[in-house]
């Protein structure tokens, strides 16, 4: 999962809409705080007004994995479900 900082307008919608509270606002920016709780529902990416959230899923033999990648302007994260 990535939040594209260039596109994000810090509206907070992803924070409000995520049913399992993966995001939190910190210093008026959304950060991915609880990646392990993500259910891959896709609502955040669908509802983001700036298309700033990208969810990437790779399925290996036994589980889905979400990669939270990042460089300077992105939220860095890596986690497995
Ligand atoms: S919904 Fe999109 S634009 Fe709004 S804070 Fe979240 S990532 Fe940024
Ligand atoms: S895809 Fe994950 S982070 Fe996004 S709204 Fe659903 S549970 Fe929350």
Automatic annotation (TrEMBL):
Keywords, ordered alphabetically: 4Fe-4S, Electron transport, Iron, Iron-sulfur, Metal-binding, Repeat, Transport
InterPro entries per UniProt: 4Fe4S_Fe-S-bd, 4Fe4S_Fe_S_CS, Fe-S_Ferredoxin
Tagged with keyword Transport: yes
GO MF entries: 4 iron, 4 sulfur cluster binding; metal ion binding; oxidoreductase activity
Domain 4Fe-4S ferredoxin-type: 1-28, 29-58
Name of the featured protein: 4Fe-4S ferredoxin-type domain-containing protein
PROSITE patterns listed in its UniProt record: 4FE4S_FER_1, 4FE4S_FER_2
Domain of life: Archaea
């Amino acid at each position: 999962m990535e939040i594209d900082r260039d596109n994000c307008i810090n509206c907070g919608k992803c924070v409000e809409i995520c049913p399992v509270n993966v995001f939190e606002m910190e210093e008026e920016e959304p950060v991915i705080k609880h990646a392990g709780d993500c259910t891959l529902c896709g609502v955040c990416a669908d509802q983001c007004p700036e298309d700033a959230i990208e969810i990437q899923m790779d399925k290996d033999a036994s589980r889905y994995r979400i990669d939270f990648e990042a460089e300077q302007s992105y939220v860095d994260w890596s986690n497995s479900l």
